[in-house]
Amino acid sequence: MKLTKLFKSAAIGLSASMLAVSVQAADVIKIGAVAPKTGALGGGAVVTQWPNVELWSKQVNAAGGLDVGGKKMMVEIIEYDDKTNPGEHIKAAQRLAEVDKVDFIVAPYGTGFNLAAAPIYAKYNYPHIAVSAISDKMPELTARYSNLFFTLGNTTSFSESVVDILKDMRAAGTIGNRVAMVNVADAFGIELAEAARPRLKEAGFDIVYDKSYPLGTPDLSPIIKGAKESNPDAFVAWSYPPDTFALTEQAIIQDLDVKMYYTAVATCFPAFVGKFGSKINGVFGAGGVNQDSPDIQAYFKAHKDITGKDADGWASANTYVSLQILGQAIEGAGTLDRQAVIDYIKASSFDTIMGPISFEDQISNRFWTVGQWQDGKFRGVKSSQMAGAAPIVAKDGWN
Amino acid sequence: MDIIITGLLLGGTYALIAFGLNLQYGVARIMNLANGEMIVLGALAAFWIFVADAISPILTMLIVAPLSFFGNWLIYRFLLRPLVRRAKNQGQLEVDSILATFGMAFALVGIMVSIHGEYYTYSYLAEPFEILGETFALNRIVAFCFAVLIGAALWLWLYFTRTGMAVRAVSVSTEASGLVGINVPQLSAIAFALGGAVTTMGGTLISTFITLDASVGVVFTMKALIIIIMGGVGDIRGAIVAALILGLVETAVARLIDPGLTLAAAYAIFVLILLFRPQGLFGRKPS
User: Which CATH number does A155-289+369-384 carry?
Assistant: First the structure.
């Protein structure tokens, strides 16, 4: 009885506050964001995705909002946790469109989620500027969905860049032909390993160790021991966050003495250098950023000041850029009409912290592919059309 | 030799995961689906205190254990005891406790995300340690030693003390042990609280070598379930043996055949044991 009363008063309170919001709604741009806070991808999204949503919206509002056809409008973010569950994501996306009636959305986090949610965002014609989505299917998808944009690159370019680094280092005489390659047995790891295998062979490398391991393997020391026994010159792992940490810890303990060591996702995370300190000097990882760019430095500082967290050395900046593009497109189109904003994105070049970005068939070809830890900073060393790549250094032990 | 030692170390980790649930399910009859979250909670404590004050996770473990004991005692007393009281039979209690602890798991995940949503990763004793010319991780060896200590302490307590005997009696039959004058509600509460404390200690130890995050608990709950069902519900020796078998088999498969098959091998053994000894390695046949 008591409980029912409590619920009733809570419900009344809630609807009253919602009423208050809808009164002001005319001057507010509502932007919905669905991404994981819990579940398998939660640990990554709270580093790369969520802080940038917070940072961008606070900066926009601190500047008085976005200028929409001469009228300043504040942005309001409506957040849902998709629990790293595609079903939950679709439900939340539907809710954003039907119940919250948001004007725009922030793209989902993770390749699978961007692909799974593309139809629903297309149905409501939201500009969908995907960031953390790497796939070779991008041209097919953009042909099908006219509202969908890609910014972080494709599988081919990520594996090609790693092979390019191996070639560069072989040409410099740093390494020989022996490459150990492992991957997490998951769509991402399998796709990248399959893309890399023929390219390595074509370039004349010997893949002396080639194994996969299930996601969540509690002990990866057998992998590192196996790789070490194969006596490789280079070690490449298409790995996910927990295994990126675990493989590197084992590589240090087993003293896997390679001149080239690469782990994929999360190598660029602040937690990676936080855990290993100077030991990971020379480690390569997916992503990268131009640490010398004043725009990026200002962004890193604002990120730390406003969210209290350090940005990562890769997709953090891209995520922020995607929001800059959305904001500039709304201002440029001068309206909240989604089709007009989509058309504006397709036709324009955007001035971002990563330099000018424009889209060719809805795909941006300016992105980093490989970075390297150099004296405590994760610097971009290979990219597609990005300026400011740092020279590669050879890994010199785990000290 | 390398495979045996690596396998034993992994087995020790698995034992740490399963000890607590074994007590909670075997004695207190609570199928605690929030077991994994208790592990993560222990890991979070270790990570948090280590990053803030560089305090050794071993020390954290000693602080966390009594806190967890008390917390789990409260959970049992106020959340689970009413379920036990109203349950007409074992089956109903199992369903109720699964639902209640499932909900508790979500609440715990939410709390942990709000404290620290990122990966709990830090470096503690990540140093090489040589045994017979092979290199192993020192943090895994330390965790293994504690697993041995905890296992031995539990075994001594269960088999050589009066309370331990009473606990074993409750695990055989709650009704019969009540009839011979054992305070079943009190012992169940102690077993549940102790189970929770051991689980949290396992979490702090595991966090020194496995990167956890707030949502990863369910993976550990699954492993723990497999181990206690393999070993025989309520028998600490069974949990130890099952954990070691699992560790050895997974390591052997990873080294000799293919790391991709470790999960398949673990489940194959699980199925074989269920087929040929459904009550578990050390379990009693239902009479």
Answer: 3.40.50.2300
